Amino acid sequence: MAGKSGSRGAQAEVDFSYFGGAESLTEGKRSPRRTVVVSSTEKDDGQSYPGPPQDPTDFLWLMTEEPHRSRRMVIMKAHPEVTKLMGHEPLTKYVVLGVVSLQLFIAVQLRHSHPLSFWFLILAYAVGGTANHNLFLAIHEITHNLAFKGVNANKALAVFANIPIGIPYSAAFKKYHIEHHKHLGEDGIDTDLPTNLELLCLNNVLGKTFFATFQIFFYALRPGFVRTQTPTKWHLINLVVQLIFDYILVSTFGVRPLLYLLFSSFFAGSLHPCAGHFIAEHYVWDGLNQETYSYYGPLNVLAYNVGYHNEHHDFPSIPWTRLPALRALAPEFYDTIPSHPSWPMVIVNFIRDKNVGMFARVKRLAKGSRLSGQVTPTTSGNGSDRD
């Protein structure tokens, strides 16, 4: 008994998963494991490393298909009642209305405050950053047509949700995000992936700090360089509505309310607790080939349950309010997959941990490239060693 008790004490001494890996790194040793497994398996006990550290000079190139379609088919066979969770969620439009109203109210109230004053900045970070992050994720939810039954009604709601963000965003996001789902990890198509230039310039502590601070600009500008879109009428509607709103706001109340909204959008995609999900969702951790991670913590309340990210990619037609029910329906699939215990600590560990960085993303050749006989880069062995 004493031996067992001692071993448990030793394990607790090194198991920092409940704190999101908040301990100091030990120089010369591999960092403690960052992810957790709710129900450990023989394949992964949630404590040991399934694979060696990734080569930091290139991305993790895999020849396998993305995992979500196959898991979706298996879950539907095991739990055919999962289809009852699919469909639109009427609550979404009311949440959007409430958050938009809150942001516009605060913006107008700050019309006499200096943009660099303490209260202006703290409100923009704590309230505005959280609210606009919520609106980013509302647009993400609406992009999957989960607020209304009709497509145009969803697009119109996305344009409305875009208003406090300050710049037109919703129409362009839709196409890029659908491609992200259909072509997860495919180089040159999935614009969520870092580029080779980012790998070259930002693959160190200073570069990762810069990236984490200015994430919003990377996600806004990168798609245009990687894969341009053909504008549609909804791009025009999004642009015109946003410009009209910004003009009315500035001409009526001055520029400071607009600055509050723009500051809020910046903080929403910067060093903000909720912004940890941008890194948590698809960066590779702990020597795993896993390319999608969930987070089941309390910040999901503010973020349309986007932390249920494996669940979302498996079933994009299930709305945010029913993703916890999906996990509860199929725990044998989801509780055995490593997940993140903390979004804020994901940002911290991403910056300081040499075993994760801009390189820690799964990439695969686009389907057309594979069919044409092109081969993966020389580092493709990086993936085969870890299979």
From TrEMBL:
It is found in: Membrane. Residues 23-57 are annotated as: Disordered. It holds the Pfam family FA_desaturase. The keyword Manganese does not apply. InterPro entries: DES1/DES2, FA_desaturase_dom, Sphingolipid_d4-desaturase_N. Residues 54-92 form the Sphingolipid delta4-desaturase N-terminal domain. One of its GO terms (molecular function) is sphingolipid delta-4 desaturase activity. It catalyses: an N-acylsphinganine + 2 Fe(II)-[cytochrome b5] + O2 + 2 H(+) = an N-acylsphing-4-enine + 2 Fe(III)-[cytochrome b5] + 2 H2O. One of its GO terms (biological process) is ceramide biosynthetic process. The chain crosses the membrane at residues 94-112, 118-139, 236-253. Keywords: Lipid metabolism, Membrane, Oxidoreductase, Sphingolipid metabolism, Transmembrane, Transmembrane helix. It is a multi-pass membrane protein. It comes from the Eukaryota. Belongs to the fatty acid desaturase type 1 family. DEGS subfamily. Delta(4)-fatty-acid desaturase which introduces a double bond at the 4-position in the long-chain base (LCB) of ceramides. PANTHER family: SPHINGOLIPID DELTA 4 DESATURASE/C-4 HYDROXYLASE PROTEIN DES2, SPHINGOLIPID DELTA(4)-DESATURASE DES1. This is Sphingolipid delta(4)-desaturase. The lineage of its organism: Eukaryota, Fungi, Dikarya, Basidiomycota, Agaricomycotina.
